[in-house]
Amino acid sequence: MEATTPTLQTPPLFSGQRDTNQAQKTAALSSDFETFLKMLTVQMENQDPLNPVDSADYAVQLATFSSVEQQVRTNDLLSSLAATMASGGVESLGHWVGMDVRAGNEGYFDGSDIELIAPDRKDADQRILVVRDETGGITTQENIAASGTDFSWDGNFANGVEAPHGTYTFSVESFNNGTLLATESVQAYNRVREAVIEDGEAMLILKGGNSVAPSDVAALRSPD
């Protein structure tokens, strides 16, 4: 499947705020420079004519201010680039909205099956899916195929009662001749609801409200 990234304009939230901050910093820098020149002029007018300040000292002061000014402008540029990259991150993730991503072992149950991916252990003759609720308590355990990676949870408990809607975590216990070999996390697919900026980082908001960084996504696919 080929995915295309839409070309969007920078959201007003970022561009407007960035322009306002930049204008304020530029005005402050200009004011500081004028103050510096006034102080330097006063210093020159009130110096001892018999012992004038060496011109090299003035050059050092001017160079120092110029260095500070350059650093301020550099910081402004970096801040502007960071904001642009952040907003661009949201734009580039726009086509992920409505897709299913596989990341972490949490899945949101809303009445539909949750698609899961488990590690495949060739040495296991039995595997048990362990489902935990948001408190960490085990809600159900069920046997799954001894081999393979793809399976799903239908949201039903062992007694056939449907689980309450909410977020569940998944793991699988692998056995051989009754001996526990390993307990491993199972990755779940969740629908992407939106892409946002959180603390300067692009994040994906999933069905149920959980968030995940794009870098933590192991797979992306179209919903069935």
Question: Mind telling me the C-alpha Rg?
Answer: 30 Å
- What is the second-level CATH architecture of the largest domain? Sandwich
Biggest sheet overview: 7 strands, antiparallel
Helix tally? 2
**Proportion of residues in extended strands:** 25-35%
Which spans of ≥5 residues are poorly predicted at pLDDT below 50?
Answer: 1-18
What is the CATH topology classification name of the largest domain?
Immunoglobulin-like
* Overall CATH class of the largest domain: Mainly Beta
**How many separate domains?**
2
Number of strands: 12
Helix content: 25-40%
| Average predicted local confidence, pLDDT | 78
Query: Distance between the terminal alpha carbons, to the nearest Å?
Result: 13 Å
Question: How would you spell out the order of helices and strands?
Answer: HHEEEEEEEEEEEE
Helix/strand/pairing category: alpha+beta
Overall outline: elongated
Written description of the protein model:
This protein is an alpha+beta fold. It folds into two domains: 12-92; 99-224, Sandwich (Immunoglobulin-like), CATH 2.60.40. Helices cover 32% and strands 31% of the residues. It is built from two helices and twelve strands, in the order H-H-E-E-E-E-E-E-E-E-E-E-E-E. It has helices spanning 12-45, 55-92; strands spanning 100-102, 106-109, 114-117, 126-132, 138-144, 150-153, 166-176, 179-185, 187-198, 201-206, 211-212, 219-221. The strands form two sheets. Strands 1, 3, 6, 9, 10, 11 and 12 form a seven-stranded antiparallel β-sheet that branches. Strand 10 (201-206) and strand 11 (211-212) form a beta hairpin. The longest helix is centred in the first third of the chain and has 38 residues, at 55-92. The model is unreliable at 1-18 (pLDDT under 50).
